[in-house]
Design a protein that fits this description.
This protein is an alpha+beta fold and 154 residues long. The chain has three helices and five strands; from the N terminus they run βααββαββ. The N and C termini lie close together (5 Å).
Length: 154
């Protein structure tokens, strides 16, 4: 997992955050709001929308605690790197990349999709027993996978 210290990240020029209900409707709304916000910023959003959809879906399916919401944050840095963060209430449930997925399986592809679109992604602990899954898409070619050891969870 890549955990870049905030002091090493370029300053972000734009920021968007919203708290949403931990329901399927909230997950769908996360994607729609991300698409709208990125469009307002004049950024392409196909890859980012897919990453938001997967992270929000995981927050609802695996990170839900009754009565608690999840949070979506988008940070567009000066170098146009987009950081997507989804925080859910289940810090005790650490996601893992699954083994091979069969064609007829109904689940198990979410983090593989994030891994395919993001240049870097990982997990950080959040206050109150929560966790944040984050993904970064570089501006040079949004949606193209990155290379190197700083991908995924350890």
């Amino acid at each position: 997992m890549s955990q870049t210290s905030p002091t090493h990240l370029p300053l972000f020029t734009r920021h968007f955050a919203v708290q949403l209900s931990a329901t399927r409707r909230g997950a769908r709304l996360a994607r729609l709001l991300a698409e709208r916000q990125l469009d307002e910023w004049g950024e392409t959003y196909d890859a980012a929308a897919q990453v938001v959809a997967e992270l929000a879906s995981n927050a609802v399916l695996h990170g839900r605690v009754q009565g608690r919401d999840f949070r979506l944050a988008l940070k567009l840095h000066a170098d146009r790197t987009l950081r997507i963060e989804v925080t859910d209430a289940r810090g005790d449930r650490i996601p893992r990349l699954p083994g091979p997925v069969t064609d007829d399986a109904e689940g198990g592809r979410g983090l593989r999709i994030v891994d395919a679109y993001a240049d870097r992604w990982g997990l950080t602990r959040a206050p109150a027993g929560a966790k944040t899954l984050w993904a970064e898409l570089d501006s040079r070619d949004p949606g193209v996978t990155g290379e190197g050891p700083d991908r995924g969870l350890s």
